Amino acid sequence: MYKPKILVVEDDPAITNLMRTTLDTQEYQYHTARTGSGALLDAVSYNPDVIILDLGLPDMDGVDIIRKIRGWSEMPIIVVSARSEDQDKVEALDAGADDYLTKPFSIDELLARLRAALRRSRADYGTAQQNTAVYHNGSLTIDYAAGCVYLDGEEIHLTPIEYKLLCVLARNTGKVLTHNYILKEVWGSALASDTPSLRVFMATLRKKIEKDPSAPRYIQTHIGVGYRMIRQ
């Protein structure tokens, strides 16, 4: 049975030991690095399924590591950092991180984020073919070729903007997308003045695909950061 490989990039020995113990109990394979340069070498040689990355490393900022890795790989990157400001989260996610967890963190939450990243990694092959395939997520279906959306087998009408929003979220299921990323993908620009419009369209989209928009199943809000499509 294949055991996922995790690369832990962390310079705090106490946190590294905590993660080692946690990954051991879950029977993951893992490798650790304490510097950014070491992390970049290990990302190539160890070829991990997921990277757990601290931003405050002694030789390099973690955001720079994310950008470098994104130059050649889409392997999932979960940031675990003491930086808790929204701007820090947005910068890391815009650079290409898949998720962001703030220290101190819950082990259960870290494992849940790790499982979600692994599910996304395993789905990458199918995701690459979604332009000509059909997307299924719970009772939600998107027929990309026909440009149609179905909920519980019944077609629902979406405006062109709502459809683009849904497709962007669906193609990145499980990944937090920042406001800037979504604005660039849907509108072609990322002006701060467009963010209120994004919220309005997201609200109308939710009314159409969520049975209870006040307790959404599909589209999760990350306040001050962006949105995520949840895998059902």
Automatic annotation (TrEMBL):
Residues 132-231 bind DNA. Keywords: DNA-binding, Phosphoprotein, Transcription, Transcription regulation. Residues 5-118 form the Response regulatory domain. Pfam families: Response_reg, Trans_reg_C. PANTHER family: KDP OPERON TRANSCRIPTIONAL REGULATORY PROTEIN KDPE (PTHR48111:SF50), REGULATOR OF RPOS (PTHR48111). May play the central regulatory role in sporulation. It may be an element of the effector pathway responsible for the activation of sporulation genes in response to nutritional stress. Spo0A may act in concert with spo0H (a sigma factor) to control the expression of some genes that are critical to the sporulation process. This is Stage 0 sporulation protein A homolog.
